[in-house]
Amino acid sequence: MRLYTAARVLTGDGGILHDGGVVVGGGVIRAVGRISELPTDLEHVDFPHGTLLPGLIDAHVHLTMDGGPDPVSELRRTNGPELLDTMRSNARALLDAGVTTARDLGGYGFLDIVLRDEINDGIGHGPRLLTATRPLTSPGGHCWYLGGGCEGVDEIRRMVGEQALWGADLLKIMVTGGHTTPQSKPWLPQFTDAELAAAVAEAHFLGMPVAAHAHGVEGIRAAVTHGMDTIEHCTWQTESGFDGYDPALADAIATAGIPVCGTFNPLLARDEAYATERRRVVGEMRRRGVRFIAGTDAGIRDTPHSAYATALATMAGYGFTPAEVIRAATGDAAAALGVAGSTGSLAPGRDADLIAVHGDPLVDLSVLAEPAVVVTRGREYRPERVAGG
Ligand SMILES: [Zn+2]
After folding, report:
1. What number is the ipTM of this complex?
2. Which protein residues have a CB closer than 5 Å to ligand 1 (ion)?
3. Structural domains of the chain in order of their starting residue, each with its CATH number
4. Could you report the per-residue pLDDT of 89-98, keeping only the tens digit for each?
5. What sequence ranges are listed for the domain Amidohydrolase-related (predicted)?
6. What is the Cα 245 distance to its own chain's centre?
7. What is the CA(378)–ligand 1 centre distance, in A?
């Protein structure tokens, strides 16, 4: 058993304990409380000026992509077994960034399953992975090169069934086109209503939640209509720009309780017009009760897996307070991904997923960029720092 203590403990559900600690043993959290209430005859790791909080959650990553200048070409060049090594190093980079749970929303060759199981078995190093394997897309559609092209109700049912047989944790559907595939139009739907209904019914029957990649308004509407479980991106994109925000549809998202993973990474935020409109629309959606969770799209261009904290700063730039960002990255994300019983909060019985940072992230989110310690299911890591990073 080990005792971690710090000046403050953020429990992940909005709670704060001053001079608090967490007792970890056998891979799970045994106790959480004020230091004065906890046993002291344990191995003790103290962060007298620091903060303990739940391990962070990235609800949207691509381990097959390297986050460099041209990840898709790189993936197509190295799509053999060596791709697994790239994925292992990306998983380790996430862990070093404090991420103890990551949802991989677009794998290749079912290698995400291999890596997930390596990590679960304790022979690999990385966050708990929730794997979607190949995302369903139209033939030649967004991310077709990941192998998920399909068309027609029967073929879609077969594809979803195969994902489950391989051991996928969830289904990802490219409901609309996307940005990283030439010829793909992000504002246009890729499937018919009958196809989407079949995919969702089959996935839910097989116990898999459905993540809807949706930029365009029609796709966002389809995600709500068909009862998909999370909406990714949700940029309200039209042919003319990011100008399709529909308040009534935002109300429908809120009423249905579908969490939105806005993939708030710095890439699109570089465009000032986009960022200004995004900030306005995200604020509007939140006022209407839409819940956002943290996810980065790590792996896409200029979005390395090590840069998780940068994406949280981007999220803050869209109007979230540090406390709201932290909840979106811990307790709320865990609830949205269906793993709140295991992670996302510091409470007895949860898996021992926690990080320690120097300073107070409620005052300065940037302290999350350099966790001093990362504990994932009880295993303690001291993050490796990239030289000069
Ligand atoms: Zn993505």
Report:
1. 0.94
2. 297
3. 2-55+345-381 (2.30.40.10), 56-336 (3.20.20.140)
4. 999 999 999 9
5. 51-375
6. 23
7. 29
